[in-house]
Each structure stands twice: as C-alpha cells, then as structure tokens.
C-alpha cells in the first residue's frame, strides 16, 4: 500500500499573511499553487497541485500542535491509510473530511506536529 505520494502543501503562521504572499511572489516568484504533472498519472485531465500558504498567527487550524507550521502530504486511499496508521498506534485527529477537491485527515507525529493527509481529486 502506498502511503505518502508527494507534498500537498506547506503551511505556516505569519503576522501578515498578505504581506508574506506579496514578498514571496515579488522576490522568489512563489504563488500559492504549484501545478505539476504526476508522472505516475500522465493521463490526468488536470495538473496536480502543491499549495503554499501562510496563515494568520492566531489560526487554530494547526491545533492541537503548538508549532507554527504544518505539512500536508498527498496520499492515495486516505480511509485505508488512516485505518492502518491507527492500528500502528499513530494518533489520528478527528474524522476524515471530504470536499470536492479531495479528502483530508490529520495525524500527530511523535513530537506533536500536526500532519494533514490529503487524497486529492486531480
């Protein structure tokens, strides 16, 4: 069973997310969405995406982690992966959520970093 297939997103806290987005765009050419072709799915109608996004410092989206960042990893078959991770003793946070752009689940690593798992609809 495949587990992580790529980076889905990089999220971090910022005092001024708008200013950070503008700075990164102006100086490094970074936009919020990186589009790319998944070489394992070249027939995909839409490109795959990796999201880059600063969040406000007071966001609770990274909770229960107290870290100022959160990684999002692309996965296949999220429901099965969450089941296996739980059996392996990994802390699973909340219930899987489904949106038109994919399914999401959350876990904690041994140091309390919240990790978002994303089964995208590419």
List keywords for this structure.
2,3-Dihydroxybiphenyl 1,2-Dioxygenase, domain 1, single chain, flat
Short note summarizing the structure:
The chain has 122 residues and is an alpha/beta fold.
Write the layout of secondary structure elements.
Blueprint: E1 4-14, H1 17-28, E2 33-36, E3 48-56, E4 69-75, H2 78-87, E5 91-99, E6 102-108, E7 114-120
Parallel strand pairs: 1-3, 4-7
Antiparallel strand pairs: 1-4, 2-3, 5-6, 6-7
Can you tell me about this structure?
- The protein is an alpha/beta fold.
- The protein has one domain: 2,3-Dihydroxybiphenyl 1,2-Dioxygenase, domain 1, CATH 3.10.180.
- It contains 2 helices and 7 strands; from the N terminus they run βαβββαβββ.
- It has helices at 17-28, 78-87; strands spanning 4-14, 33-36, 48-56, 69-75, 91-99, 102-108, 114-120.
- A hairpin with a 5-residue loop joins strand 6 and strand 7.
- The mean pLDDT is 93.
pLDDT < 50 stretches = none
Reported for the largest beta sheet, the result is: 7 strands, mixed
The name CATH uses for the topology is 2,3-Dihydroxybiphenyl 1,2-Dioxygenase, domain 1
Number of helices: 2
* 3D shape: flat
Q: In terms of structural class, how would the helical and strand content be classed?
A: alpha/beta
Distance between the termini: 20 Å
The appropriate CATH architecture is Roll
Name of the CATH class: Alpha Beta
Our count of domains comes out at: 1
Give, in order, the helices and strands.
Answer: EHEEEHEEE
Question: How would you name the CATH homologous superfamily?
Answer: 2,3-Dihydroxybiphenyl 1,2-Dioxygenase, domain 1
Into which percent range does the helicity of residues fall? 10-25%
Question: What's the rounded overall pLDDT mean?
Answer: 93
Biggest sheet: strands side by side, in what order? Answer: 2-3-1-4-7-6-5
